[in-house]
Write a structure and sequence with these properties.
About 35% of the residues lie in helices and about 20% in strands. By secondary structure, it is α/β, with parallel strands linked by helices. It binds nicotinamide-adenine-dinucleotide. Belongs to the Gfo/Idh/MocA family. Keywords: Oxidoreductase.
Amino acid sequence: MTNAVAAANNSVFTSTNDVPLQVGAPGARRLRVAVLGCGRMGQRHAYNIYHLTPRAELVAIADPSPMAEQWVKENLSSVNYYKTTDEVFAIPDLDAVVIATITSTHAPLTLQAIDRGLHVLLEKPITIDYESSVPVVEAAEAHPELKVMIGFVRRFDKALLELYNHVQAERAGTPYVLKSVSQDVYDSTGYFVQYARGNGGIFMDCGIHDIDMSRWLLNTQSAGRQEVKRVIASGLIAAHPELEEMDDCDNAFCIIEYANGTSATLHLSRTGMAGYNSSVELMGMKQNCTVSTPPSSRIKVADFDGHHNPTPATYLDRYGEAFISEMNEFAAICLDDKAVPTTAYDALQAAKIAKALTVSFLTGSPVSFNKAGEPIIDKAV
Ligand SMILES: NC(=O)c1ccc[n+]([C@@H]2O[C@H](COP(=O)([O-])OP(=O)(O)OC[C@H]3O[C@@H](n4cnc5c(N)ncnc54)[C@H](O)[C@@H]3O)[C@@H](O)[C@H]2O)c1
């Protein structure tokens, strides 16, 4: 196991540093939350709720895996552990669930939670194929009294929020291009290939974050119903030959032409050899603005290989603080009846683009969108 993967699996948590934790009035009600799915993301969310979200209370965790049971015993032994999600849905005074199970279970669990009258923080994507996300979007929109928030964590990242506010204040001038590079650290253990089988491929699983970020920073909803004109994608396999039989690749290149006249270019990679890298550059008519990956330590080391800062090992290190902010925001949104910043509709729009990019990669042809905002995809693909 590489150090990076070991770090992810062992759940090395970041400190709060300068994350503003939301604190309610003394004695105020706290949001009673359960976590469904206790793998990499579920553990992170459970830890953050328990230790770092003052306005929420972690009341239960459900996951059938013996490893999850062991993790709860070792790390959060005072929290009720269940093997099934049905046992959690039967808890009478529950307010919300965080769904961090494998992607194929997201839609049925979200529909069950909405039916049960619970707020939901749902990990991305809703499903691995956007068409099957539609019932979830409809159910969420039919219940405005419930908050259904999607875990597009980048929208809660301090540096990217600063960039968003900078653009909104018109300091960069009219934005026209967003370039994003997202490199997951290379995993030689085989874990990643196993994970990739159930999670929708590089465009849906990895690219959906970049796509959502481009929609957000380029304000693409301003164009109305048809947000996208056309997408083009290509890709290659550098290190994981097993991906070929899954119609997937480990490095992908995307161009998204939005209907408001802006474009996004993405490089998505599973083969980062220098730790996790997420670099974002926004070009406006007055400025180029860049958010690069900060080093994971302020100590700069000098040795015979040169002078260097350590890089973040995984996305959990780069976006660790953003996950804490996301959970604090979710508690505040539910308790204070605030608007959800990352809706099921946003997830559906991003998934349409991810699906169109997947089809473009597989066929070698661009995919256009129609006036109703739907990708024009040959059903035979
Ligand atoms: N926001 C992000 O940056 C981010 C990063 C990684 C993963 N994710 C998303 O989080 C989800 C989980 O990913 P992960 O990396 O934690 O995967 P994982 O394989 O580490 O964990 C998934 C867990 O879900 C459990 N599970 C499966 N079916 C279940 C069910 N019916 N009820 C309860 N538990 C069940 C499994 O036993 C496992 O422990 C995926 O949808 C993924 O796309 C989001």
